[in-house]
Amino acid sequence: MLEDVPRDPFADDPNDPSSAMGDLDDAEPLTAAERDEAITDLADVEVFRSLLEPQGVLGLVLDCPECGEQHFFDWELLRGNLKQMIEKGQPQVHEPAFHPDPADYVSWDYARGYVDGVIDTEERR
């Protein structure tokens, strides 16, 4: 019985559109500083999520320096990308959010400010 495993529709196709991406296994390892930054970012995302998800925030919106557009990342996708960056030196391939409602996402700076505000409030108690 055949398993329900998706088949690559471009397998063995010399015109495979993904061939321009190169081999995904050839990623350069992160430098020690880049790895430390990714680990810090992952810890930040965990804190952001713990405080913002209960408020109805679905994730973060990030400005893409390559295309100039905003990209919407839910918490799990952002976490997965950072973990893969740490482990393999590159983010995972993913599909962009389908018609995200910008009101459901906040910027990194907003999330950082929110966390700082919560910490300041707790310290004053």
From TrEMBL:
InterPro entries: DUF5319 (IPR035165). Residues 1-31 are annotated as: Disordered. It holds the Pfam family DUF5319. It comes from the Bacteria. Residues 1-10 have a biased composition (Basic and acidic residues). This is DUF5319 domain-containing protein. It comes from Nonomuraea aridisoli.
